[in-house]
Task: structure prediction
Amino acid sequence: MPDSKSAEKFKHPYDTPVSSGLRFPMELAAWIAVPWWAWEVSGPISGIPTFLILLTIPAVFSTAGDKRQVIVPTPGPIRLVIESGLFAGAVLGASLAWSPYSGVAIAVIAVLALLSGRRRMAWLLKGAPLPME
Result:
């Protein structure tokens, strides 16, 4: 039986279901489009490692209070750099691997994700201080 602490619902002080819901397709786009493009350029020798790197970095490097489970504690601004890299990779990868139109579609999702997540981004930029309870 899990302890009560792990069974509690994770509550983020500045994230919303909309912003996290829009970040997820951006991560998926990066995980798919960038390795797809790398595979087209040089085959599995770069496609597979690219996928593994893009999947591992955001999963391992997290900011305390931002995720339920933090493997390697990372300052908020560094977490923003990681996410910005994923967003840029998703847009560029979709444009190069598929079509400019798919890049534009991913860019629109990115803008919506950035707008809906501005409170979380400001919190991360400030170093992600945990609110007093």
